[in-house]
Design goal:
single chain; 226 residues; alpha/beta; 8-stranded parallel barrel; 11 helices; globular; binds ligand 3DU
């Protein structure tokens, strides 16, 4: 992920949920400007696992392939899910932490990179957000590669950066949910996840380029890109 970020000069991950057109065409449009794509459950349910596998095969090495099924089951089931996610060709996966047991899941052999949700973007995620510090600690103790932090709540992004200086912070919520591209990077995130602003645009390529350019401009001005 970091190598792609370096070579493309981008901190953009495009979220593929409700993809209105043939996914491959859309991904080709944004490939130049994005470090990776994040595949959500709406994508899987609409296009099926074979399409997900083909997407991973097509873009392996040129995009970081992140699976976002927000896994939250008992540890043996999450371990099995991660094995199958790996077999589909993903590099990383997003997991919930509130259910407990992430430590045993993280020791599973040849698992994808793991990113733990420590707070969410919507206002109603009060219960989860209230436990942000404990969830962050659990994620760090389990040796997860990174955390998912809400771009809509910059104070949480800042706190996560402070608590987890070495973790890779992914921030969804940029664009359709309000925050401007680059704002989560300013707050301390490493990557911004952008869905509808790009995917629902009539010109996804230009939308992705615009996000990448704003990220560069804002991060350079604030000198925050690691
Ligand atoms: O709002 P957008 O269309 O840019 O999509 C945001 C994506 O990030 C979407 O895939 C959603 O599942 C994910 N996400 C959040 O929006 C908020 C979170 O706290 C965690 C993940």
């Amino acid at each position: 992920m970091w190598e792609l970020a370096e070579s493309k000069g981008s901190r953009l991950i495009v979220a593929l949920d409700s993809v209105p057109v043939e996914p491959r065409e859309l991904v080709e449009e944004v490939e130049e400007y994005a470090v990776g794509v994040k595949v959500g459950l709406p994508f899987l349910l609409r296009w099926g696992p074979q399409a997900v596998k083909e997407l991973c095969e097509t873009f392996r090495g040129t995009l970081y392939l992140l699976c976002d099924f927000k896994l939250a089951d008992i540890p043996p089931v999450v371990a099995e899910e991660l094995k199958l996610i790996r077999e589909l060709g993903f590099d990383g996966a997003i997991v919930h932490l509130f259910q407990g047991g992430i430590e045993s899941v993280s020791t599973v052999a040849s698992r994808p990179d793991l990113f733990g949700l420590v707070a969410m973007t919507h206002q109603e995620s009060r219960l989860l957000d209230a436990h942000f510090e404990e969830l962050t600690r659990e994620a760090l103790e389990a040796g997860l590669e990174g955390l998912v932090v809400p771009a809509t709540k910059p104070e949480i992004v800042k706190a996560a950066r402070k608590a987890a200086p070495g973790a890779t912070l992914l921030a969804p919520g940029v664009g359709a949910q309000g925050p401007k591209p680059g704002s989560a990077l300013e707050a301390g995130a490493d990557f911004e996840i952008v869905g509808r602003l790009i995917v629902a645009s009539s010109d996804p390529r230009s939308a992705a380029r615009a996000v990448r350019d704003s990220q560069r401009a804002r991060a350079n001005a604030a000198r925050v890109m690691r």
